[in-house]
Specification:
Mean pLDDT: 85
Low-confidence stretches: 3-27, 740-753, 779-784, 786-843
Strand order of the largest sheet: 3-2-1-28
Largest sheet: 4 strands, antiparallel
Strand content: 15-25%
Helix content: 25-40%
Structural class: alpha+beta
């Protein structure tokens, strides 16, 4: 039964089940969307069944390194007959062709034990490795054979369609007897399947680029599933060293795979990500590998995993990655440092990384081993076949017979190898040649600059490669002397000497700021044979690298060509020369430009360009002034924000007092005058509101005699308090004119309570009764605010308190605080205990 018949039967059975309303609710044996993924417990039996990692070994039934190849048919040519496509088995060790037969293989053959599996149009075919006889075939119809794998007598293969898109997405996975092709089990899904791999009794199948289904090889039941959440799964490979999967990067299948992420898994970043065409480390497992000549598979990174069970690591055998680009081979170490490079005569159809180096199979039937250390030819066999593809089973092939030495290997260096690739005339391979230029330019040898100049000057060099050379030279910091020397060459028709590649040289000189090139650039500026398309660039080099010494030749050029019809359509060169005079010529140069601009024969574009120089200077100056002003304003605003943030929430009494201390002399004058008028005055009190900007308002005085108010108001108008964050606050300042007599003995009990209680205690301590005066609110009127121009304020005359009580009625001198709400704040008091005022000497 072929694949199409099976799909038809499956559809019929499914339709009958749905029509009868009795569709099974049991999950499918594999590829069910209901199955959980990344379950660590499901992976444990699979991991436990995996064999210990080993080195690469032969698995084919012949026990020798084997290549099964497809040949490329050739049309008849003079003296040569036409050939047809064939399938052949080669013994690489002996150089013997084991068998060959006409066969139009569509996919690259695989060597699986004693069987070779490939496909023809519409069918997968298995052949005997020893004889090449066909063992079995399975029709595919609309499906495409993708690949196969084998363990024991069971062979599994996949055919699929839809990887490139479209509505038709089908996948077929079959397990068969390797020799007879008889079916053991199968799965069909509405999705895309990739190349399967078998190891440890389990089948690993990538599907829909995000999952790996892990099935039991015996019955095809899916036992575990991996799903990546932040990457793509493009291939799975079972090697003696373990199971690996990935796309551009490499994952090792282990306990950490259950994370489903790069970070949580054992993962190695994609090597050589900057190489041209973003080469893969394995063939994309969803596409058939071509058995005919094709660009697919000709660009690859080859490596061999090291036989290591070290957790969390993916070591590489020999610390080598080999990048193959058709017929170029680049060898890198694990840190992606280039070790060697090699050009082969024909394209590589297949390669394999070995301990001793890289085994390559080329289109001309030549098998070579390029040495691990330097890429020298270690071994060679020529099978004299035109090959299209090759399937290999070589283990860790270590040939003992040496091939014929390549004379080019004598004295070969990395520089000469890269130069050979860069200068190769094969224009199919320009991306790899540009890659070689990039690698070459990273080397420190100064002569490389000369090599790149010579390559650029060749007429056959394609434009893409010229661009790569230009970028490489601009990035180089050595070898600039060769650039300067190249300027000594001028076009000479009689001598047949071309002009140097100024379009390449000048940008590199500008990038490296090589001021020693000015003389050579000036000579090309004044040379009428300099290509016109390079002239503006040359003059730009003169302007950027020169100083005031280049003004005379620039003036000469401007005088000669400012009205020349040669520059009627493109005046860039003249405009750049004018710019150089403007920048380096000082006031005299600017006057020359003004004169030139005023001449009627001067080309209008030149006039516009020169005027633009003056306009831009003014605009730049204005912009600079604006920028400076904006920067200054921004700095001031930032300073203001910082100052505001540093302000206190409100002022302390100490901060208020400090403001008044600065005006002590004036305050003393005013208060002494008030004492003369009122000898019994005990204190002077000022109450006011301070705003957050340091200003004040609603000033009140106690006492508020007109003379005192008139004397203090000028002082108060000069006061400026520190700024604070709160919107405003009430404050006061009190001057006590007499001592309070509040001193107490050290062992005296401190009495808390109203002032009269404290006075009573002091009187008893002095041995006699003291008359306790009445509270101030009973003997004083409320203070009145100072009067304006409408009238004269009358002082409030307090009643005379009882004798002996004055000292206890006034607040303690020199203190202040927040004034009480309303107008009930304390007026200036009278009396005291007869001590001297606070400002007299000795206090």
């Amino acid at each position: 039964m072929n694949a199409a018949t099976r799909f038809g039967s499956f559809a019929l059975l499914l339709g009958l089940a749905l029509a009868g309303g009795c569709a099974s609710t049991a999950p499918r044996a594999a590829f069910s969307y209901q199955m959980a993924d990344n379950v660590a417990g499901d992976l444990q039996p699979v991991l436990a069944a995996q064999p210990a990692p080993t080195g690469d070994t032969l698995t084919n039934a012949l026990g020798v390194p084997v290549a099964v190849v497809t040949t490329h048919p050739l049309e008849a040519a003079e003296g040569q007959e036409a050939t047809q496509a064939e399938l052949a088995a080669l013994n690489l060790e002996s150089g013997e062709v084991l068998w060959r037969k006409p066969f139009e293989a569509m996919t690259r053959p695989q060597v699986l034990g004693d069987v070779v599996v490939t496909s023809v149009r519409g069918a997968v075919v298995a052949l005997d490795l020893r004889s090449g006889d066909e063992l079995w075939r399975e029709e595919l119809d609309e499906l495409a054979y993708v690949g196969a794998s084998r363990e024991g007598n069971t062979l599994v293969w996949v055919a699929s369609v839809g990887v490139a898109g479209g509505a038709n997405r089908q996948g077929l996975l079959m397990a068969v007897n390797a020799r007879s092709g008889s079916e053991i089990w199968e799965h069909r899904i509405q999705g895309v399947l990739g190349h399967p791999e078998v190891r440890g009794g389990y089948v690993f199948v990538p599907w829909d680029r995000q999952n790996i289904a892990i099935l039991n090889l015996t019955d095809g039941v899916e036992t575990a599933r991996l799903r990546t959440t932040d990457d793509v799964i493009g291939w799975v490979r079972a090697e003696p060293q373990g199971v690996f999967y990935g796309y551009r990067g490499i994952y090792r299948f282990d306990e950490r795979s259950a994370s489903g992420t790069k970070q949580g898994s054992t993962y190695r970043l994609a090597p050589l990500a900057e190489a041209p065409r973003e080469p893969l480390v394995q063939d994309d497992g969803y596409y058939p590998t071509p058995g005919t000549r094709s660009a697919r598979g000709r660009i690859r990174v080859y490596y061999e995993p090291e036989a290591s069970a070290e957790p969390g690591a993916i070591p590489v055998e020999g610390d080598r990655f080999y990048f193959v680009y058709f017929r170029y081979v680049f060898a890198f170490d694990g840190d992606e440092n280039l070790i060697w490079a090699r050009t082969l005569p024909r394209d590589v159809v297949r390669a394999h990384a070995l301990t001793g180096g890289l085994l390559t199979i080329a289109e001309d039937g030549n098998a070579r081993l390029l040495g691990h250390d330097a890429g020298t030819l270690r071994w060679e066999k020529d099978f004299d076949l035109e090959l299209a593809s090759a399937g290999l089973d070589v283990g860790d092939f270590a040939p003992t017979g040496a091939g014929s030495a390549d004379p080019a290997d004598e004295g070969r260096t990395l520089r000469t190898s890269l130069a050979e690739i860069a200068g190769d005339p094969d224009n199919r391979l320009v991306p790899a040649r540009a890659f070689a230029v990039e690698l070459l330019a990273q080397m420190e040898e100064p002569e490389i600059t000369r090599d790149l100049l010579d390559l650029y000057a060749q007429r056959s060099t394609p434009s893409a490669l010229r661009e790569a050379i230009g970028n490489a030279l601009r990035a180089r910091t050595v070898g600039t002397d060769f650039l300067v020397t190249a300027l000594e060459q001028h076009y000479d028709f009689l001598e047949g000497t071309p002009a140097p590649p100024l379009g390449l040289i000048v940008p590199a000189l500008l990038e490296q700021r090589v001021d020693g090139a000015v003389e050579g650039l000036v000579s090309h500026m004044l040379d009428h044979e300099t290509p016109r398309e390079d002239l503006a660039l040359v003059i730009r080099g003169v302007v950027e690298l020169g100083d005031e010494t280049v003004v005379p030749p620039l003036t000469n050029f401007l005088t000669l060509y400012h009205a020349d019809s040669l520059f009627a359509e493109n005046t860039d060169a003249v405009a750049v020369a004018a710019e150089g005079i403007f920048r380096h010529g000082g006031e005299e140069g600017r006057q020359l430009l003004q004169t030139t601009m005023a001449q009627p024969r001067t080309r209008e574009p030149v006039q516009v360009a020169v005027q633009g120089l003056f306009d831009r200077e003014q605009a730049d100056a204005a912009a600079q002034a604006r920028a400076e002003a904006e920067a200054e304003a921004a700095a001031a605003a930032e300073a203001a924000r910082a100052e505001a943030a540093a302000r206190p929430l409100r002022l302390s009494q100490a901060q208020v007092n400090e403001v008044f201390v600065a005006h002590t002399e004036h305050l003393r004058t005013c208060i002494e005058g008030e004492l003369e008028r009122n000898p019994q005055l005990g204190q002077v009190r000022l109450a006011f509101i301070i705003n957050q900007d340091g200003s004040h308002q609603e000033m009140r005085f106690a006492p508020n005699s007109p003379e005192l108010v008139a004397c203090l108001e000028p002082v108060m108008s000069e006061l400026e308090f520190p700024k604070f964050r709160q919107r405003r606050q009430r404050a006061s300042f009190t001057v006590s004119l007499r001592g309070g007599g509040d001193e107490q003995a050290g062992d005296e009990e401190v009495v808390m309570g109203p002032w009269w209680e404290r006075a009573k205690v002091r009187a008893e301590a002095e041995g006699g009764e003291r008359r306790i005066g009445r509270p101030w609110w009973q003997v004083r009127h409320a203070a009145a605010p100072p009067q304006g121009d409408g009238g004269t304020a009358q002082p409030t005359q307090p009643e005379q308190p009882a004798q002996g009580s004055e000292g206890d009625q006034s607040p303690e001198g020199g203190e202040g605080g927040q004034a009480p709400e309303g107008d009930g704040w304390n007026e200036g008091g009278e009396g005291g205990n007869g001590e001297e005022p606070w400002w007299l000497p000795g206090q």
